[in-house]
Automatic annotation (TrEMBL):
Domain ProQ/FinO residues, every copy: 5-119
UniProtKB keywords: Chaperone, Cytoplasm, RNA-binding
Residue ranges with Low complexity bias: 155-164
Gene designation per UniProt: proQ
Subcellular location: Cytoplasm
Biased composition (Basic and acidic residues): 98-113, 133-148
Name this protein carries in UniProt: RNA chaperone ProQ
Region Disordered: start-end pairs: 98-171
The species this protein was found in: Alteromonas gracilis
HAMAP family: ProQ
Protein family: Belongs to the ProQ family.
PANTHER family for the chain: RNA CHAPERONE PROQ
Length: 222
């Protein structure tokens, strides 16, 4: 009998934990504060589970408890839960304050990264003359084109298409842009898996996308 395929990233393990222990872990909505020492409980309960190693389990638990969604749940007086959802010790003020500090620092870092990326983007120069209607060219521009024997050109700035990622770029920590809506959003690669690439947006949310949806950030190319 073949061994089951092992999990390769934190997202797969979190989904597995939410399915196996639904009263303790979740992938959306409000998170529940976890019992102190729950890693050992997980290691014992999952001792026969071949798909997840203790190393990956530990890093997944750290990823889960550092998320903004989880840090929001650490409030003074709230009860921690075990793997079966049984409430235990109440969260002390010291732990709640520490979680709030982590949350504020994480959001501040995300804001600083977003500000730095915006500052690194080249500023577009407005080539239109003062009070000139949009799309209207100056007479001097048309005259120069006619003198050269060329057709008048529009004044759109030359832009270089974003570069696709190479195999060497597909690694943790690479700054990229990912198009989730109409405009590309800055992000950082956190994991590269067989079924996609996990990136963390400035908002703190982690999403999985195909490598084709990623482009190198300008700061990476410069």
């Amino acid at each position: 009998m073949e061994s089951p395929e092992k999990f390769t990233n934190s997202k797969e393990v979190i989904a597995f934990l939410a399915e196996t222990f639904p009263k303790c872990f979740s992938i959306e909505g409000e998170a529940r504060p976890l019992k102190i020492g729950i890693f050992q409980d997980l290691a014992t309960r999952l001792e026969e589970e071949e798909r997840v190693s203790k190393t990956l389990l530990r890093s997944t638990l750290r990823h889960y408890t550092n998320s903004w969604r989880y840090l929001h749940s650490i409030k003074e007086g709230a009860n921690r839960v075990d793997l079966d959802g049984v409430e235990g010790d109440a969260i002390e003020k010291e732990h709640a304050d520490h979680a709030q500090q982590q949350l504020e620092e994480s959001k501040a870092k995300a804001a600083e990264k977003r500000k730095a990326k915006l500052a690194q983007q080249p500023k577009r120069k407005d080539k239109r003359q003062f009070n000139r209607p949009k799309g209207e060219k100056s007479a001097n521009s048309d005259h120069a084109d006619a003198k050269r024997g060329t057709k008048p050109k529009n004044n759109r700035p030359n832009t270089t298409p974003p570069a696709k990622l190479t195999d060497s770029d597909l690694q943790q920590g690479t700054q990229v842009t990912v198009k989730l809506g109409k405009a590309p959003m800055p992000a950082v690669i956190t994991e590269v898996a067989k079924d996609g690439v996990h990136v963390q947006l400035d908002s703190g949310m982690v999403v999985k996308v195909n490598a084709d949806a990623l482009r190198l950030a300008r700061s990476k190319r410069s």
